[in-house]
Amino acid sequence: MNTIVTALGTARARRLRAALTVLLATAAAVGAPFYFAPFQVFQLTMVLLYAVALAGLNLLVGFGGQISLGHGAFFAAGAYTAAVMLDRYGTGHLATLPAAAAGCFLLGLGFGVPALRLRGLYLALVTLSFAVFLPPLLKRLEPVTGGSMGLTVDKLRPPAWSGLAEDQWTYFVVLAVTTVALLCARNLLRSRAGRALRAVRDNESAAEVMGVRLSLHKTLAFAWSAMFAGVAGCLYTWVIGFVSPDSFGFVLSITLLAGLVVGGLASLYGPLLGAAFVMYVPSVSQDLSEAAPGVVFGLLIITVMFVAPTGLAGLPGRVLAAVARRRPRATAAPPGPAPGTGSAPEAEPGPEAGSGALTTLTPPGPAVVDAEPVGAPPRTEKE
């Protein structure tokens, strides 16, 4: 019974901490655009849209156990889908979001089928080739994509009733889409499909024996991952208002994968931390060394991975574990006296306990050959 009460108390405390954390995070997210400058609000907006892309990559790499070095290509596909719809067809901004998500889902589904027979470095090489050849292809499709000059589209405009500036309105729209995307990723991982995906990652043979269809879930992992990347690319078009093939080189794919690893694989908070790393670390590297920002960026990645091998999301747990190991252990009760040391043992009540008399117990020692009974008269010399 005590165990059940303790468990209920622990669960209630855990829920209370989670609710408090969500409340504080919501207050900070809502109040941020009113506190920071417009450029800083723009940076926070970019962090949010990168978090959507990393959440999709986390489904594939962190929870699916596969690897992709071509995630920037799906990001570019979503961005160009939104840009073409806005520039060529004059649709509204909100109409581009489901189109980019659906188009990238089908693209990932088609790409995931031939990738079923590949794994490890071979799969990484194939996905990297996809990220390498897409920018030249976009340049060739000049009547649709604008070629090397790219496309310039309108940014989000705040409605009159909102009373918000353009950067603030864009931030809140991207925040809403990011929140929905992260909740969808969380619910997906807690569903039957998410559990099957993790089973495939842990042991493919055991998962297949349990009835999990490997081909189906591996293909769906690519499709989901591409869909999230397409949504992030659509948000990128809304925020920047300009797309060009040079903005989506294979370096973007490498940066996204590095951000996910630094943030924390198979973690629900890892994409947010990794997105902050992708957004702020290159700018910090540029400020520290204008001649070689890539060197500073690489050294920062090495430093973070040395300090937190499991990513920034696992760093608090490592710190708490280290503090717990350094705590002094509770002092144990002093041991009783060893036999034969001569220390007096405890007293026990004798036969006359009612009168308060106590008899001292003698510790076991060597046997006495000529012992006298208690209360016997003294012996004489004749005896």
TrEMBL record:
Compartments, as annotated in UniProt: Cell membrane
GO cellular component, one term: plasma membrane
InterPro entries: ABC_transp_permease (IPR001851), LivM-like (IPR043428)
Protein's UniProt keywords contain Cytoplasm: no
GO molecular function, one term: branched-chain amino acid transmembrane transporter activity
Extent of Low complexity compositional bias: 340-357
Membrane topology: Multi-pass membrane protein
Pfam families: BPD_transp_2
The keyword Membrane is assigned to this record: yes
Stretches that traverse the bilayer: 41-61, 68-86, 92-113, 120-138, 169-189, 220-243, 249-282, 294-315
Keywords on record: Cell membrane, Membrane, Transmembrane, Transmembrane helix
Region entry Disordered, spans: 330-383
Superkingdom of this protein's organism: Bacteria
Entry protein name: Branched-chain amino acid ABC transporter permease
Organismal lineage: Bacteria, Bacillati, Actinomycetota, Actinomycetes, Kitasatosporales
